[in-house]
Design goal:
45% of the residues lie in helices and 15% in strands. The chain is α/β, with parallel strands linked by helices. It has a single domain, classed as 3-Layer(aba) Sandwich (Rossmann fold), CATH 3.40.50. The mean pLDDT is 96.
Length: 243
């Protein structure tokens, strides 16, 4: 499907992670002018060599860095994909310093990028689209996910409010809420039979999501094909939250 994203400048944070990198690749396949961002310069350079994207290095937890990095950047779209998983802990055991870091990265970082990117988009007057990467953890209770779920629940609320505030400027704001993407980082927990099997058995499609399963709806929501969709938090979870 033709997405109409040719030459449109789109910022992807957390661009060298699994979902971020898959999104960069798909956007580049669509001809978008992708600006890949993150803290790791070496990882960004590898992605640039592979895909031909532009790169922009900054720490999304630093307001000063975000403001400086985005000050003069022309944008049509933003994918807020940078994030931190935190820990697996109950509410009784959670480490508040870890909680603070999760909120700082996932919630505050998403707001900071949205704050400064949307200013540029409003000033340009061309409309646009912002897609936040949330999680299935914001929609259902998942054991051990108190910090991560809290951060993503806030992202969902932020998505709805930003859609309301930015709609008058023809800027759409949506989120996707993926189920587990079985990367090496998540394998240590969800790969345990006693942890992962009950979730898979409860999922109508009965499989884990891939990075590409997440990238495709992100690119759709950025495109003109989704021109009447805003304020939506879209589960990408094989039907898990529908049953």
């Amino acid at each position: 499907m033709h997405m109409g994203l040719e030459n449109r400048p789109i910022l992807v944070t957390g661009a060298y992670g699994g979902i971020g990198a898959a999104t960069v690749r798909l956007l580049r396949d669509e001809g978008a002018d992708v600006i890949a961002s993150g803290r790791n310069e070496e990882a960004l350079l590898r992605l640039r060599t592979e895909t031909g994207c532009r790169t922009l290095q900054f720490d999304l937890t630093s307001e000063a860095e975000v403001k400086t990095a985005l000050q003069d950047v022309e944008l049509y779209g933003v994918v807020n994909c940078g994030g931190f998983g935190g820990e697996i802990a109950t509410p009784m055991e959670t480490d508040i310093s870890v909680f603070d870091k999760v909120i700082d990265t996932n919630t505050r970082g998403t707001l900071l990028v949205t704050k400064y990117a949307s200013r540029n988009m409003v000033n340009a007057g061309n409309g646009g689209s912002i897609v936040n990467i949330s999680s299935q953890a914001s929609l259902v209770g998942l054991a051990g996910h108190i910090s991560y779920a809290s951060s993503k629940g806030a992202v969902d609320a932020m998505t709805r409010v930003a859609a309301l505030e930015l709609g008058k400027h023809q800027i759409r704001v949506n989120a996707i809420n993926p189920t587990v993407v079985m990367t090496p980082m998540s394998e240590w927990y969800w790969g345990r039979k006693e942890i992962g099997e009950p979730l898979i058995q409860a999922m109508p499609l009965g499989r884990w999501a891939s990075e590409e399963d997440c990238a495709a709806p992100i690119v759709f929501l950025l495109s003109d094909n989704a021109s009447m969709i805003s304020g939506v938090c879209l589960p990408v979870d094989g039907g898990f939250t529908a049953v």
